[in-house]
Amino acid sequence: MNNVSETLYPNNWKKPPFIKRSWLRWSIIIGSILYLIAALSSMDINIQRVLEGIPRGQRFIESFFPPNFSDNRGVVWEGILESIWMAIISTVAGIALSIPIGLGAARNLAPLWVYMTCRFIIAASRTFPEIILAIFAVKLFGFGPFAGFIALSLGTIGFFAKLLAEDIENSSPAQAEAVKATGANWFQWINYAIQPQVMPRMIGLSVYRLDINFRESAVVGIVGGGGIGATLNTAFSRYEFDTAAAILLVIIGIVMVLEYASSHLRKWVQ
Amino acid sequence: MVVIKKQDELVWKKRTTREQWINWFYWLIGISIVLFAWKIISDKTVWFFVQDAPRQAADIGSRMVPPKWSYSLELIKPVWDTINIATLGTVIAMIIAVPVAFCAARNTTPHSTVRIVALFIIVASRSVNSLIWALMLVFILGPGVLAGTVAIGLRSIGFCAKLIYESIEEIDANQVEAVKATGASNLQQMIYGIIPQVLPTIAGVGIYRWDINIRESTILGLVGAGGIGLQLNGSINTLAWTQVSTILLVILATVFVSEWVSAKVRGAII
Fold this sequence. Notes:
The complex is a heterodimer.
Chain A: H1 22-42, H2 47-62, H3 76-104, H4 112-127, H5 130-141, H6 145-169, H7 173-181, H8 186-220, H9 228-237, H10 241-269
Chain B: E1 2-6, E2 9-13, H1 17-43, H2 47-64, H3 76-104, H4 112-127, H5 130-141, H6 145-169, H7 173-181, H8 186-217, H9 228-237, H10 241-269
Helix pairs in contact in B: 3-4, 3-6, 3-8, 3-9, 4-6, 5-6, 6-8, 7-8, 8-10, 9-10
C-alpha cells in the first residue's frame, strides 16, 4: 500500500488579484494611501465645529418635519410650475438647436470644417456646469426664468448634440446608401435613412434630458435664474425649513414620475 | 406604410391618412404646450434687459481680457481642494453605494422591503442636486471643504448605486450556481460568484463619477462649500472680471485633464 505515491493537491486557493501586475498594484495602493494622507491633512476639518453641528443638524432635520406644502406665501406651487415650464421650453429649444449641430458633428455626414466647428461648440457647452452658464446668463439677461432658460438650453446642446452625433456615426451605412440609391435629395436622405435609425434612442434621451433640466432648474434659481430654485433658496435663507422640505419632496416626486415615464416611453418606442 | 393610387399612378406614403391626422394632432398638442410654456416664461421676462444683452456681453467680454495670469498662482490651493472634494466624495459614495446596490438588485436583495428602501435612497440622492446638498450641509457642518465632500458623496450614491445594481441584475447566473455547487455559503457566493463579475463595472462607474464630480465640485463654493467656486463667486461679486476669466480657464484645464485621466483609466480597466 505504501508504494502508491500520493498526489499532492493544493488545499488552499486564493482568488487572483484584480490588477495582475504586482508592481502596479502596490504602487496604486501606496500612492492612494499617500494621497489620502495628503488630502485629509490639507482639509483642516474643524472637529469642534462638526461636533457643534451635530445637535444643530438634529434640530435642522427636526424642523423639516412636518413638510409644509401650503406655505404662508403660496409660492411653492408657483415655483414648481415655473420650473416645469422652464424645463419643457429649454429642452425643446435645446434639442432644436442640437439637431443641426448634431448632424454637423457626425463625421459621416459633414465635411471636416463643419465637423470641427460643431465639435468645438459641443465641447465648450459640456465643460462648464449649468450653474456657471446661469451666472453669466443672469448677468446678461437679468434675474428671472429667461436666464435659466438660456442656461439650460445651452447645457442641453452639449449633451444632446454629442449623443445624437455618436448615434448617427453608429447608424448602418447600408440603409443610408439604399435610400441614396433611389435618388433622394439631402433632406429626404436624412429624413428616411438616418432619422428612423436614431429616433427611438433620441426620444428616450429627450425625456431623460427633460428630467435633467427639471432637476437643474432647481439649482439655477440659487444664482437668480428663476424656477423652484429661487423659492428653495429663499426658504433656506428665511429658515423656513418645513417649506424647504416640502419643495425637496415635490422635486423627488416629480423626478420619480419622470423616470418611470421615460422607462415606459423607451419600451413603447423600441 | 401604404401605397395609394393617385391618377393611375401608385404612390408610396409613409403613413395612411388616418395615421397622418393622428400624427398632426400630437404635433398640435406638443406645440401648444411649448407655446404656452414660452408665454409663461416671456411674461416674467423684462425684455429691456434682454435687448440690452449684446451690449452687456461685449462689455463683460472686453473686461475679461486679458486674463490676470498672476492670479493663477493663488488658485493652486483651491484647485487642490476641488480635486480633493471630488476624490474623497467619490470614495465616500462608493463605500455606501456598493452595499446599497446589492440591496437594490433583484437577485441579491435580502428582502423586497429592503429593496424598496434602497431604491428610495437611490432616487432621493439622485434627485437632489449637489449644490442643494451643499446648501444644507453648510448649515450643519459649517462652511468649508468637509461640507462639499459630504455633499458630493451624498449626491453620487444614487448615480453609482443605480449603475452598479443594474449590472448586478445582468450577471451570469451560471457562475453563481457553479460556486454554490461547491457548497459555498451565501457570503462566499457573493465574494467568489458575483463580485468578480461586477468589479470592472464598479471600478468604471467610480472613475466615471469622479470625472463628473470634478465638474460639480468647481461650483460648490457658490454656497460656501469650498473649492474653486469660492474664488469664482468672490471675483464675480467684486466684478474682478480678469480674475473670473483666469478662474474659468483654470476650470477648463482641470476638466480637460480629469476627462483625459478618466478616459485612460477606463480604457485600461475595460
